Amino acid sequence: MSRRTLLRSIAVGGAALAAPTVLTACSTDSSGGGNVSNAGKKVVPWPKYSPAKGPTPDLAPTAEGVQPGYTKYPEKLVRAMAEKPGTGKQKIKVMTITYGTPPKPVGQNKYWQAVNEALGVEVEFTVVPDADFRAKMSTLMSGDDLPDMINFGGGYVLPRESQFVKSRCADLSEYVSGDAVADYPNLANIPTYAWEGMGRIAGRIYGLPIERAKVQGGMFINREAFDKAGYRPGMSAPDFQAMAAEGSQGKKFTLGASTVGFYGYLYHAMWHGAPNQWQIKGGKATDMYGTDAFKAALEYMAKMRSAGSYNPDATSISQVDLKTQFYNGTVRSMTDGWGAVISNAQGIKDEFTLDVAEPYQVDGVTPVYQQNRGCFGYTVIKKASKDRVELMLRVLNWLASPFGSKEYELMHYGVEGTHFKYDKDGDPVATETGLIDSKTNLPFPYLMDAPQPLYFPGFPDLTERLHAWEKKVVPLLVPDDHWGLMSETFNRQGATMQQIIEDGVTAIVSGRKKLSDWDGIHQKWLSQGGKRAAEEFLKEYEAAH
User: Where would one find the signal peptide in this protein (predicted)?
Assistant: First the structure.
């Protein structure tokens, strides 16, 4: 997966990601937001973290990043909000990406109606399918008609995104910086690492991060099919390669990939020992793409593709269609976002055991695992009057209501009896209606969400399995050191740079180009902004540290 894919994977239902085209929303001179660097600026403090009180987990979290695990639903839910954010008369427009199917109109959608009623606000929700997100954002950022709230999610690299936000969106520093966030206690429950991953713009806070677990995503596997092919957690790289070939027989494929997954390259690169995108150390910024480990991973993936271990339509199939192939057993694995666990568990309909692969072992290499940015993305508010901004913040504060609250239950599971029913164990399990009128197709949690626990209603064994997996993998996490840093070059050229990488990876793994071509591809990436971005990230990093 690419960096964008990785981000997206962070997420949600979130799959992976397509290479965005260059947007033309803002000019490339100093206008349209001006200098967004934090270097040399007086920066406002991050919001003061104040964790919400919640139910005691069955499986304990760790300070390093293992999530709290709940094998059963809390018996008693609390009210997180004393009153509705709105009066029932206000209307707001919001926009997010979606990985689901188009929601039914609000007049036919009881989930949408129920959330509107709880908010006391009529929400006009524009959901943009993943495949259309680039074009929609290009139009939006170059136009004058902005929605009240926009989520920059899914991991896309949008040129001059920070300049757009600085020039067109509200500076939220006075509302949430430091102690001010106490007026929005559910937003104060967002851990500091999520704010840091989002980053400041010109020393100020312009967005609100949608927290995600520190674990980036996973290579989700059909455990029975993998075991039959000879899988063992932590097996050697050659044995994994042989296992992948053994499991790819009779139009079944061990490794599933899509047009936005890019053969899962980020996982393989890091398991070969490459840094997590950017490593800044000893006065030097090193990108992963120029390392020997990255080239070794490319060679490894190309051999597995040549052996028939990947689905042959990997360069033409969407992530949504790949999920269908995973659910029906055509492919035995896929890389996906951590937030997609429950939808994947529901999608397979108990046909096999959903699990996550552990890194294989490369001789002489200590494998590392990608630490998440800390957020799926961030939500911004269009410039408006103080009263209007405060209304948006109250709405977002409601959406951030913590696990164990009535508000969280409504946003995540819908209305009891319509969208879910409590099973014999007290877990909220989706009805057929709940699978359609849901947060997947109408993604309120992409605007704002509470910190995520490991809890999968109806799948207590999955909670235990993934908690045990996190305990093994979290010690391997390494961060991407560029998160939260500003680079004028990366803001302007990031999409073009990323497309060079992803096109090159796809060409080499699919066999259209040779491994020896990679050095030229990397040099092109450096000349198109990689070299200068490294210098700018280093300057920002040193200013912040």
Answer: 1-24
Look up tokens 């809390």; give the residue.
74
pLDDT digits (tens, 9 = 90+) for 448-504: 999 999 999 889 999 999 999 999 999 999 999 998 787 889 878 888 999 999 999
β-pair type (333-337, 369-370): unpaired
In contact, 146 and 126? CB cutoff 8 Å = no
**What tokens were used for 246?**
């053994």
CA 445 vs. chain centroid, Å, equals 12
Give, in degrees to the nearest 5, the angle at Cα 180 between 178 and 182: 105
Q: Are 500 and 524 in contact (CB under 8 A)?
A: yes
| 215-246 pLDDT per residue, tens | 878 999 999 999 999 999 999 999 999 999 99
Q: CA–CA separation, 505 vs 485, rounded Å?
A: 26
Cα–Cα distance, 190 to 103 (Å, whole number): 28
* Coil vs helix vs strand at 274: coil
Q: What is the pLDDT of residue 223?
A: 97
Per-residue pLDDT tens digits for 9-30: 333 333 333 332 222 233 333 3
Residue 407, token pair as written in the block: 């508000």
Helix axes 518-525, 488-510, angle to 10 degrees: 170
Q: What is the pLDDT of residue 458?
A: 85
Residue 216 CA to residue 199 CA, distance in Å, equals: 18
Q: Distance of CA 15 to CAs 53, 119, 219, 222, Å?
A: 31, 29, 11, 17
State both tokens at 500.
């060079």
- CA–CA separation, 136 vs 125, rounded Å? 14
Residues counted in the chain: 545
CB-count burial class (<10 Å; 0-12, 13-18, 19+) for 331: buried
Q: What is the pLDDT of residues 322-332, one digit of tens each?
A: 999 999 999 99
Extract the runs of DSSP E, i.e. beta strands, from 342-475.
354-356, 369-370, 375-381, 420-422, 428-430, 454-455
For 464-476, b/e burial (b = at least 16 CB within 10 A) is ebbbebbeebbeb
E strands, 292-424, are 333-337, 354-356, 369-370, 375-381, 420-422
Is the separation of the CB atoms in 408 and 450 below 8 Å?
yes
